[in-house]
Amino acid sequence: MHRNxxxxxxxxxxxxxxxxEWYNSLDKSxxxxxxxxxDPNVINKLKKQNYDFHLHLCEVFIKEETSFLEEFxxxxxxxxxxxxxxxxxxxxxxxxxxxxxxxxxxxxxxxxALHLGExxxxxxxxxxxxxxxxxxxxxxxFVEEHQYYLQQKLSAQQELIQELSxxxxxLNNEVALLPLVGEIxxxxxxxxxxxxxxxxxxxxxxxxxxxxxGVPIIDTMVAHQIFQLIKGLELMGVTSALTGVRPEIAQxxxxxxxxxxxxxxxxxxxQALNSMSIIKR
Length: 281
Known about the structure:
The chain is α/β, with parallel strands linked by helices. It has helices spanning 2-13, 15-24, 40-57, 65-80, 83-86, 90-114, 121-164, 186-203, 220-235, 247-256, 269-275, and strands at residues 169-170, 175-181, 207-214, 239-243, 264-266.
Protein backbone atom coordinates (compact mmCIF):
# COMPACT_ATOMS: atom_id res chain seq x y z
CA MET A 1 0.00 0.00 0.00
CA HIS A 2 2.89 2.36 0.80
CA ARG A 3 4.34 1.77 -2.68
CA ASN A 4 0.94 2.52 -4.24
CA UNK A 5 0.82 5.84 -2.38
CA UNK A 6 4.27 6.71 -3.69
CA UNK A 7 3.17 6.02 -7.26
CA UNK A 8 -0.03 8.00 -6.70
CA UNK A 9 1.96 11.01 -5.47
CA UNK A 10 4.33 10.72 -8.42
CA UNK A 11 1.50 10.65 -10.98
CA UNK A 12 -0.41 13.42 -9.23
CA UNK A 13 2.67 15.65 -9.43
CA UNK A 14 2.91 14.85 -13.14
CA UNK A 15 -0.75 15.66 -13.91
CA UNK A 16 0.01 19.03 -15.49
CA UNK A 17 2.87 17.55 -17.52
CA UNK A 18 0.58 14.76 -18.71
CA UNK A 19 -1.95 17.31 -19.97
CA UNK A 20 0.65 19.49 -21.69
CA GLU A 21 2.32 16.50 -23.35
CA TRP A 22 -1.03 15.15 -24.46
CA TYR A 23 -2.29 18.39 -25.97
CA ASN A 24 1.01 19.23 -27.67
CA SER A 25 1.08 15.82 -29.35
CA LEU A 26 -2.60 15.97 -30.31
CA ASP A 27 -3.45 15.43 -33.97
CA LYS A 28 -5.25 18.65 -34.88
CA SER A 29 -5.23 18.10 -38.64
CA UNK A 30 -8.76 16.70 -38.88
CA UNK A 31 -11.32 19.54 -38.70
CA UNK A 32 -13.98 17.32 -37.13
CA UNK A 33 -14.62 17.63 -33.42
CA UNK A 34 -13.26 19.28 -30.32
CA UNK A 35 -9.57 18.43 -30.77
CA UNK A 36 -9.13 20.64 -33.85
CA UNK A 37 -10.76 23.73 -32.32
CA UNK A 38 -8.78 26.98 -32.37
CA ASP A 39 -11.19 28.70 -29.98
CA PRO A 40 -9.17 29.63 -26.85
CA ASN A 41 -12.16 28.95 -24.59
CA VAL A 42 -12.67 25.49 -26.05
CA ILE A 43 -8.95 24.72 -25.82
CA ASN A 44 -8.74 25.80 -22.18
CA LYS A 45 -11.83 23.78 -21.35
CA LEU A 46 -10.39 20.74 -23.13
CA LYS A 47 -7.12 21.01 -21.20
CA LYS A 48 -8.98 21.34 -17.90
CA GLN A 49 -11.07 18.27 -18.73
CA ASN A 50 -7.90 16.31 -19.44
CA TYR A 51 -6.22 17.60 -16.27
CA ASP A 52 -9.27 16.62 -14.18
CA PHE A 53 -9.09 13.18 -15.76
CA HIS A 54 -5.57 12.74 -14.37
CA LEU A 55 -6.60 13.92 -10.91
CA HIS A 56 -9.22 11.17 -10.88
CA LEU A 57 -7.24 8.43 -12.62
CA CYS A 58 -4.18 8.44 -10.37
CA GLU A 59 -6.46 7.79 -7.38
CA VAL A 60 -6.95 4.24 -8.64
CA PHE A 61 -3.81 3.38 -6.63
CA ILE A 62 -5.15 4.61 -3.28
CA LYS A 63 -8.91 4.08 -3.47
CA GLU A 64 -11.12 1.02 -3.37
CA GLU A 65 -12.41 0.21 -6.86
CA THR A 66 -16.10 0.98 -6.20
CA SER A 67 -15.28 4.36 -4.67
CA PHE A 68 -12.83 5.16 -7.46
CA LEU A 69 -15.42 4.45 -10.18
CA GLU A 70 -18.14 6.31 -8.31
CA GLU A 71 -16.02 9.45 -8.22
CA PHE A 72 -14.91 9.02 -11.82
CA UNK A 73 -18.52 8.79 -12.99
CA UNK A 74 -18.96 12.52 -12.40
CA UNK A 75 -16.17 13.23 -14.89
CA UNK A 76 -17.56 10.69 -17.35
CA UNK A 77 -21.04 12.27 -17.26
CA UNK A 78 -19.68 15.80 -17.71
CA UNK A 79 -17.69 14.79 -20.80
CA UNK A 80 -20.46 12.61 -22.24
CA UNK A 81 -22.87 15.58 -22.11
CA UNK A 82 -20.34 18.13 -23.32
CA UNK A 83 -21.57 19.69 -26.64
CA UNK A 84 -18.09 19.75 -28.19
CA UNK A 85 -17.54 16.06 -27.40
CA UNK A 86 -21.03 15.13 -28.63
CA UNK A 87 -20.01 16.62 -31.99
CA UNK A 88 -16.75 14.67 -32.07
CA UNK A 89 -16.54 11.26 -33.81
CA UNK A 90 -16.38 8.48 -31.23
CA UNK A 91 -13.28 6.87 -32.76
CA UNK A 92 -11.36 10.14 -32.27
CA UNK A 93 -12.16 10.08 -28.56
CA UNK A 94 -11.29 6.41 -28.21
CA UNK A 95 -7.96 7.12 -29.86
CA UNK A 96 -7.22 9.73 -27.16
CA UNK A 97 -8.13 7.32 -24.36
CA UNK A 98 -5.63 4.86 -25.81
CA UNK A 99 -2.93 7.54 -26.16
CA UNK A 100 -3.36 8.66 -22.57
CA UNK A 101 -3.25 5.05 -21.42
CA UNK A 102 0.18 4.75 -23.07
CA UNK A 103 1.26 7.90 -21.23
CA UNK A 104 0.46 6.23 -17.92
CA UNK A 105 2.32 3.05 -18.78
CA UNK A 106 5.34 5.16 -19.75
CA UNK A 107 5.20 7.09 -16.49
CA UNK A 108 5.10 3.86 -14.51
CA UNK A 109 8.34 2.92 -16.28
CA UNK A 110 9.80 6.30 -15.37
CA UNK A 111 8.76 5.86 -11.73
CA UNK A 112 10.34 2.40 -11.62
CA ALA A 113 13.54 3.76 -13.18
CA LEU A 114 13.76 6.40 -10.45
CA HIS A 115 13.61 3.64 -7.84
CA LEU A 116 15.85 1.15 -9.61
CA GLY A 117 15.84 -2.24 -7.93
CA GLU A 118 13.18 -1.36 -5.35
CA UNK A 119 10.26 -3.04 -7.11
CA UNK A 120 10.09 -6.55 -8.51
CA UNK A 121 8.36 -7.52 -11.74
CA UNK A 122 5.28 -8.75 -9.90
CA UNK A 123 4.65 -5.30 -8.40
CA UNK A 124 5.30 -3.54 -11.72
CA UNK A 125 2.96 -5.92 -13.56
CA UNK A 126 0.25 -5.33 -10.94
CA UNK A 127 0.47 -1.57 -11.48
CA UNK A 128 0.20 -1.99 -15.23
CA UNK A 129 -2.83 -4.26 -14.81
CA UNK A 130 -4.47 -1.71 -12.52
CA UNK A 131 -3.99 1.01 -15.15
CA UNK A 132 -5.30 -1.16 -18.00
CA UNK A 133 -8.34 -2.23 -15.98
CA UNK A 134 -9.09 1.34 -14.93
CA UNK A 135 -8.89 2.58 -18.52
CA UNK A 136 -11.09 -0.28 -19.74
CA UNK A 137 -13.82 0.54 -17.22
CA UNK A 138 -13.63 4.31 -17.69
CA UNK A 139 -13.58 4.04 -21.49
CA UNK A 140 -16.52 1.64 -21.53
CA UNK A 141 -18.45 3.85 -19.11
CA PHE A 142 -17.78 6.89 -21.26
CA VAL A 143 -18.86 5.17 -24.49
CA GLU A 144 -22.11 4.01 -22.87
CA GLU A 145 -22.97 7.47 -21.51
CA HIS A 146 -21.87 9.23 -24.70
CA GLN A 147 -24.08 6.93 -26.77
CA TYR A 148 -27.01 7.57 -24.42
CA TYR A 149 -26.76 11.36 -24.66
CA LEU A 150 -26.08 11.24 -28.39
CA GLN A 151 -29.21 9.15 -28.85
CA GLN A 152 -31.18 11.64 -26.74
CA LYS A 153 -29.91 14.45 -28.93
CA LEU A 154 -30.74 12.60 -32.15
CA SER A 155 -34.21 11.67 -30.87
CA ALA A 156 -34.94 15.30 -30.00
CA GLN A 157 -33.79 16.41 -33.44
CA GLN A 158 -35.85 13.69 -35.09
CA GLU A 159 -38.96 14.71 -33.18
CA LEU A 160 -38.43 18.34 -34.17
CA ILE A 161 -38.02 17.36 -37.82
CA GLN A 162 -41.15 15.23 -37.64
CA GLU A 163 -43.09 18.04 -36.00
CA LEU A 164 -41.97 20.42 -38.72
CA SER A 165 -42.88 17.84 -41.36
CA UNK A 166 -46.58 18.10 -40.41
CA UNK A 167 -47.23 21.82 -39.86
CA UNK A 168 -50.72 23.24 -39.71
CA UNK A 169 -50.72 26.40 -41.85
CA UNK A 170 -53.38 28.97 -41.11
CA LEU A 171 -54.98 30.28 -44.33
CA ASN A 172 -57.47 32.63 -42.70
CA ASN A 173 -59.36 32.92 -39.42
CA GLU A 174 -61.30 29.71 -40.07
CA VAL A 175 -59.38 27.50 -42.47
CA ALA A 176 -55.99 25.80 -42.14
CA LEU A 177 -53.94 23.47 -44.29
CA LEU A 178 -51.99 20.34 -43.31
CA PRO A 179 -49.66 19.50 -46.24
CA LEU A 180 -48.12 16.05 -45.83
CA VAL A 181 -44.97 15.24 -47.79
CA GLY A 182 -42.87 12.08 -47.97
CA GLU A 183 -43.29 8.69 -46.40
CA ILE A 184 -45.34 8.44 -43.24
CA UNK A 185 -44.42 5.65 -40.85
CA UNK A 186 -46.30 4.67 -37.70
CA UNK A 187 -44.20 6.96 -35.47
CA UNK A 188 -44.69 10.00 -37.67
CA UNK A 189 -48.40 9.24 -37.97
CA UNK A 190 -48.76 9.21 -34.17
CA UNK A 191 -46.89 12.53 -33.86
CA UNK A 192 -48.98 13.95 -36.68
CA UNK A 193 -52.17 13.01 -34.82
CA UNK A 194 -51.06 14.66 -31.56
CA UNK A 195 -49.49 17.75 -33.12
CA UNK A 196 -52.34 18.46 -35.51
CA UNK A 197 -54.99 18.30 -32.80
CA UNK A 198 -52.95 20.67 -30.63
CA UNK A 199 -52.23 23.11 -33.46
CA UNK A 200 -55.83 23.21 -34.62
CA UNK A 201 -56.94 23.91 -31.09
CA UNK A 202 -54.37 26.70 -30.71
CA UNK A 203 -55.26 28.25 -34.08
CA UNK A 204 -59.00 27.85 -33.38
CA UNK A 205 -59.70 26.71 -36.93
CA UNK A 206 -63.07 25.42 -38.09
CA UNK A 207 -61.91 23.70 -41.30
CA UNK A 208 -58.76 21.72 -41.99
CA UNK A 209 -57.64 20.63 -45.44
CA UNK A 210 -55.38 17.55 -45.28
CA UNK A 211 -53.37 17.36 -48.48
CA UNK A 212 -51.97 13.89 -49.28
CA UNK A 213 -50.66 14.66 -52.78
CA GLY A 214 -47.05 14.56 -51.55
CA VAL A 215 -47.42 11.15 -49.89
CA PRO A 216 -46.34 8.26 -52.15
CA ILE A 217 -47.97 5.43 -50.20
CA ILE A 218 -49.68 4.79 -46.88
CA ASP A 219 -49.89 1.47 -45.08
CA THR A 220 -52.91 0.23 -43.15
CA MET A 221 -51.69 1.50 -39.77
CA VAL A 222 -51.02 4.99 -41.09
CA ALA A 223 -54.35 5.11 -42.93
CA HIS A 224 -56.06 4.22 -39.69
CA GLN A 225 -54.19 7.03 -37.90
CA ILE A 226 -55.34 9.56 -40.53
CA PHE A 227 -58.94 8.54 -40.02
CA GLN A 228 -58.42 8.71 -36.27
CA LEU A 229 -57.16 12.26 -36.80
CA ILE A 230 -60.27 13.15 -38.77
CA LYS A 231 -62.51 11.68 -36.06
CA GLY A 232 -60.56 13.55 -33.38
CA LEU A 233 -60.93 16.81 -35.27
CA GLU A 234 -64.63 16.13 -35.67
CA LEU A 235 -65.00 15.81 -31.89
CA MET A 236 -63.28 19.20 -31.58
CA GLY A 237 -65.75 20.74 -34.03
CA VAL A 238 -63.25 20.92 -36.88
CA THR A 239 -64.46 19.82 -40.31
CA SER A 240 -61.83 18.02 -42.42
CA ALA A 241 -61.35 17.60 -46.13
CA LEU A 242 -58.94 15.28 -47.92
CA THR A 243 -57.14 16.26 -51.11
CA GLY A 244 -54.67 14.49 -53.36
CA VAL A 245 -55.86 10.99 -52.42
CA ARG A 246 -53.92 8.60 -54.64
CA PRO A 247 -55.53 5.38 -55.91
CA GLU A 248 -53.25 3.30 -53.68
CA ILE A 249 -54.36 5.23 -50.60
CA ALA A 250 -58.01 4.91 -51.57
CA GLN A 251 -57.54 1.17 -52.08
CA UNK A 252 -55.96 0.80 -48.64
CA UNK A 253 -58.87 2.65 -47.04
CA UNK A 254 -61.38 0.41 -48.81
CA UNK A 255 -59.53 -2.74 -47.73
CA UNK A 256 -59.60 -1.49 -44.15
CA UNK A 257 -63.31 -0.83 -44.36
CA UNK A 258 -62.74 2.83 -43.53
CA UNK A 259 -65.73 4.87 -44.64
CA UNK A 260 -65.41 8.21 -46.42
CA UNK A 261 -68.96 9.06 -45.44
CA UNK A 262 -69.15 12.62 -44.18
CA UNK A 263 -65.60 13.41 -45.32
CA UNK A 264 -65.19 15.77 -48.27
CA UNK A 265 -62.58 14.60 -50.76
CA UNK A 266 -61.05 16.52 -53.67
CA UNK A 267 -58.60 15.50 -56.33
CA UNK A 268 -56.55 18.69 -55.91
CA UNK A 269 -55.85 21.24 -53.23
CA UNK A 270 -57.11 24.03 -55.47
CA GLN A 271 -60.52 22.38 -55.76
CA ALA A 272 -60.77 22.10 -51.99
CA LEU A 273 -59.81 25.73 -51.44
CA ASN A 274 -62.17 26.92 -54.15
CA SER A 275 -65.03 25.01 -52.57
CA MET A 276 -64.37 26.83 -49.31
CA SER A 277 -64.05 30.16 -51.11
CA ILE A 278 -60.45 30.52 -49.95
CA ILE A 279 -59.28 31.45 -53.45
CA LYS A 280 -61.27 34.39 -54.69
CA ARG A 281 -62.15 34.49 -58.33
